[in-house]
Amino acid sequence: MANGGPVTTQQGGGLPRPVASGVHSDMAQQRAGGDLAKWWRNFTRVDKRPHEQPAPNGIFGVPLQTSIRYANVAISLFNDEGQSYIYGYVPIVVAKCGVFLKEKATDVEGIFRLAGSEKRIKELKVAFDSPDRYGKGLDWSGYTVHDAANILRRYFNQLPEPIIPLDFYERFRNPLRNHQAQAVGPSEAQSPSVGDFDDKSAIKAYQNLITELPPLNRQLLLYILDLLAVFASKSDLNKMTTANLSAIFQPGILSHPHHDMAPQEYRLSQDVLIFLIENQDSFLIGMQGTEADPET
Fold this sequence. Notes:
The structure is a single chain. The protein is mostly helical and 296 residues long. The chain has two domains: 56-160, Phosphatidylinositol 3-kinase, Chain A; 161-295, Phosphatidylinositol 3-kinase, Chain A, CATH 1.10.555.10. It contains twelve helices and two strands. It has helices at residues 22-47, 64-67, 92-104, 118-129, 145-157, 169-173, 180-184, 199-212, 215-232, 235-238, 242-253, 263-278, and strands spanning 72-78, 84-91. A two-stranded antiparallel ribbon has the order 1-2. Strand 1 (72-78) and strand 2 form a beta hairpin. Helix 11 (242-253) packs across helix 12. It is globular and about 55 Å long. It starts with 21 loop residues before the first helix and ends in an 18-residue tail after the last helix. GO terms for molecular function: GTPase activator activity.
């Protein structure tokens, strides 16, 4: 062992070793003791080093605020003068899947309902989970739109917290509470409507709520609402109505673990997402406070 080590004594047979006596014996013991002390100091010194920070561990099941630091894509918009500016940052997996699906899948029937290949989906998960590119250079050759749709859903469903944080859960549901049928049309498990509903007031309430969201959550919410609105606009071809899209994506966007088994509560959250998708153009264009946060 480098830097010395503990002294061992010979075991078993063999000729007896001469026993050192007097000053030579004392010097040997001191030298052995010094080597042992030096070894122990080195051992304890290594043990007391501060623990290194663990390397990033992917994106699936990792909080958005953590993974966005090493797996992000900048999103640009154009202002009224035609100038491009960075609106915000979204996870690479969302941007890559979103662009691919917009280009190839808007007219594919049942795009978010049909499963892809489990083998290819696992390959995609590894690609998006792996440093240091996290899927940024991914080539979609060999993968289908159903693979991309499935991996996008898995990312959202495996987030530790929905895109709309739990602290905002009830606040996002309140504008439509007791007005679900008036806001998005009647369906099963809705609470009865009470009083009149003003959609303009509801849109204004959601505009204010969206601006209050943490920047990363706000940017991701608006990005996915835009993506879902694109597919809803071609629901005559892909059969992905706002109701169908809401049923699929609501768990990763607006949900609460206490309401997983409560049909009326589940229905209210889905209706809120339907309303947000149908009015998504009111939440970005001309709306203040939705640009990228300088501290992000």
